[in-house]
Amino acid sequence: MSTSSTDGNMLPVMEEFYSLQGEGCYTGTAAYFIRIGGCDVGCEFCDSKAAWNAAHFAPTSIDDILHRLQQFTTRTVVLTGGEPMLYNLDMLCDRLHAAGYRTHLETSGSHPISGNWDWICLSPKQGSHVYEHFYRRAGELKVIICHDDDFVRAEEEAAKVRQVNPDCRLLLQAEWSRRQSLTPKVVNYILQHPQWTLSQQSHKYIHIR
Question: Would the pTM count as exceeding 0.90?
Answer without folding.
Answer: yes
